[in-house]
Amino acid sequence: MEAFLDGWGLTLMVFLPLAGALLMMLIPRSHEETLKVYALVFSVAAAVMGILVMIWFDYGQAGELQFVVDRSWIDAINSRYIVGMDGISLPLVALTLLIVPLCVIYSWNHFPDPKNPKAFLILILILETGMVGTFVAQDLILFFVFFEVVLLPMYFMIGVWGGEERLYASIKFFLYTLFGSALMIISFVAVFFLAQDPSSGDALRTFDMRTLSSIGQAGMLGTAGLWIFAGMFVGFGIKVPMFPFHTWLPDAHTQAPTVGSVILAAILLKLGTYGFVRIALPILPEASEDWAPWIGLLAVIGIIYGAICCLAQTDMKRLIAFSSVAHMGFVMLGIATLTDFGINAAIFGMVAHGLITGMLFFLAGSVKERYHTMEIKRLGGILLQAPRLGWILGFTAMASLGLPGLAGFWGEFPAILSSWNPAAILPLETFRTYTIVAAVGTVLAAGYLLWLYQRTSFGRPTEEFATEQFRDVEAPEWVAWVPMLLLILALGVYPNLVFGVTDDAVTQIAAAFGG
Amino acid sequence: MIGVLARLAQDTGDGILVPAEPIQAGVTQIATPEIQWVALLPHLILVVGGILLLTIASLFRHRVPRWAYTIYTVAVAAGAIIAALPLWVRVQDAERGPFSAIAGALGVDGFSIFITVIICAGVILTALLADGYLKREGIDGPELFVLLLLAASGGTIMASANDLIVLFLGLEILSISVYVMAAMHARRFTSLEAGMKYFILGAFSSAFFLYGIALVYGASGSTNMIRINQYLASPTGVVLSENGLLLGGFALLLVGFGFKVAAVPFHAWAPDVYQGAPTPVTAFMASAVKAGGFAAMLRVFVLTFGTFSGDWQPVVFALAVLSLLVGSVLAIVQTNVKRMLAYSSIAHAGFILVGVEVATEQGTAAALFYLAAYTFMVVGSFAVITVVGRKGDGHHELSDYRGLARRQPVLAFVFTILLLAQAGVPFTAGFFAKFYVISAAVDAENYSLAIIAMVSAVIAAFLYLRIMISMYMSTDSEAVTGEPDRVPVPLAAGIALFVACVVTVVIGFVPGPITDLANDAVPFLVQVG
Amino acid sequence: MPNPLNELLRQYLTVAIFAGLGLAMVGAMLGVGWLLRPDRPEPQKYINYESGVDPLGVMWSQSQIRYYVFALLFVLFDVEAVFIFPWATRLEAYGAFGLIEMAVFIFILALGLVYAWRKGVLRWV
Description:
Helix content of chain C: 55-70%
Low-confidence stretches of chain C: none
Radius of gyration of chain A: 22 Å
CATH topology of chain C: Methane Monooxygenase Hydroxylase, Chain G, domain 1
Largest sheet of chain C: none
Structural class of chain C: mainly alpha
Mean pLDDT of chain C: 83
Number of helices of chain C: 3
Oligomer: heterotrimer
């Protein structure tokens, strides 16, 4: 078994959904039930592969890449098919493999117009391949390819199944991300050509992330590294999204169908932050040090700006979208500290945000399905009309604002704390200022989330819905939500589930910064 | 016979007709060059194939079914490819290497064979496409196929020319054939306009080109590329360049090439001609004609004038940047899909120019890979446009694509793949094409060009998105207001589409083989004799 | 060492002088004529000369496309002759190679004629 997993585990995990998508293309559109079952089977199969891999994963050596496969791929540019998993990848892979089957289950009877479950499910499966692939790729080009593969299904998902303004939103999403990718690929290529072996000074000409990380700063001298980091910064920063590049996010979220929003919030945004942790920091440590204060600055601006925008929103989905900007700000702040503590917090924050915000978007979708509106003004009294839905919304909102004992807390609090003591090379005063500002951000978060909950769930239903009867939470919703709710609770109570896995790998990264 | 005449002239005793030196019985024979027929075979197959088709068709006009022309053309082009393969093996053999076919006029190297195969592939796809098109439009006759083969021979000659005069011959054979092809759909006014426009501007550019050759000849004393190259590398050559004659020649040659490959600011003809010409011809222009033009450009500038790259690189840099930006930006504001792709092909030319600009072996290989990938993407795209254009070849507006995904999901899906490939999305040939060009630019430390190229790729992506939006995301109101019928996809066009699509995707997954070939296909100036 | 380019340009000097002289000569002749001749304008003098017959219709008239085809064919074979004459003077030096080359050339041109004939352009309709 172990030999099998060593050779094929990750590859199967990545490509099973794609195989499923290809298979489904051959099935006629009218066989809806068959198609749904296939989609579920393949996404669950990928998850089973993931579980097997996680069982056989050597947690004692979580800092090392495991199940590594290294095969030649494109010899001409010395790009290889390298996949591997370590403590940083594992929680994110697990998150992806969990969320996708839940999305398939949730959409069982909830296909947004214009229906066409076949195309919808195929897109979800392709997305899964791209996302899982990004988290396990250990070659820059392979990483880039998976990173890009994600783009298209999401574009179509927003553009075809989205709301009123779907065209605008989908194009904005696509162009923003593509622009980031364009700079990113140039950075990758520049790394390829400029990376040197520090001892001999020879050009390395490799995209292998393991080699590049191990030599540090890619053996580069001068300001080249700074520019390359800037390219990656824009590429990953747009995906996160960081403050000045965030404007695509509210539009995309508001217009996307529920499942699209969930996947976008839960996983896609993590591709950016993961890129920082996995690629930008280890490969270009010196440039990271120079950029870190700026990343921190944008992160805290994002926290405050996102929170203030939330307070001004009238649309529930848009509010949750802006809260993503704020939450990802905490994650970026953790990364910017360049410390073991901060990066651990950031990874925990990614997982927690994935679960919580994903959950919030599920809820928003369900609310919209019942009330056919997202306008906070018109909602109210959910607790009366659909009590279970209302309670789940309350629980998730609490988790999102960082209530101790739930997952959100362990993403936010340590990130703030870590910025009080950033890596020794970073300016201490600056980061302590960030700490204070970020702390104000948590207060604002409590403000907008509680206000949202109060306006939508408390009180009496507005007049237009007063007489209507609504279904409470239904079976597919229960199946999709319970695992997420349980995880939110479990991670809140026992955060070591994630910290224990990530710490070894994070320590190695932070070691470059004297952390 | 001439001898008899001469003797007659002497007999009359009249001084005027007597040659100054009477021709003796034992005349000194002019040394005729040794000809490597095998090396000429690909060109010969194309030329003779074209002429033979013309003869057969004109003698038995009404007894040949139309599909026979298509099959014949495909067979001839395939024959040329097959004839080129042994040459590839011979050229790649380290001991034998590239060689000259006729006294240094035509060279056979990996580069020329690679381009020959690309052009022949373009011919095959175009012929398949033209089959259904001619039937639909009611255009009779084999002329299009004849011209296709002749134009292809011109392109292959351009790619393998080792002498500027031969290069010009190839250019003219190619151009004149394509002028006529552009005007082939004689009942469409726009087609005639396209032919006329292309002819006049093309003739202008040929004149520029020829004058450029003259100036280079004046500066270097030869039209043979290797002699020019050797001369420019010698001390006298360096002195000469300061006198401007050579630089003037560079400039005029660049103008000529710029016209042929439709680089901004010499692009003004391209949108009109691409839009007006019969769509299969447009496909051919965008693929094979461009391949021929770039092949010649790489051979002349990167190889022959390589020692003076500092002088022409800034100009090519400007051409590349302008083509990239103008092509992508203007493409976005069009509403006619055919015209959009015309502008986008200008942007693609900009990308290939990036490969030319870096003037390295890597850049050449990248340009070759781009040409190979682009040929399939663009012919495939225009194949869809041909089919959707309906009878009269006029339904090319964005609105004609509205709801295509609902009516014909397979066609829309194929078009989507091809458009994504043009946009450079991973797992398509277009991604690696762009990637290699960018790598070459970065490797040459030309970061600004790389960044501009990628930014323009993002701008251009918007254009492909617009088309996809029309196909997939149209509002439902059209469903009520009477939809156009499904468009029929002829078998041959279907095959062309299938091939283009499969090649695009396969190269996207395993680019290795083509990359290796492109790397082996280094251009080489063969020694005279 | 003389600059080779200047050397090259000096050889062109003859051409320049020749061209200048030619222009000067033509100019001189026309100029002298203009100075010497009497100048009495009359409407008749501005009518196109058509061998003494009064011209009919406007000067800008379209000519038949049929003439065009023949003009084209004429130019074709005229140019062919231009190639054949110099070739003929040196045929012996070229030998069999030259003969075959010219045969190919004429053959291709002849094929063009066959095509034109079968297309019906030679018929006067």
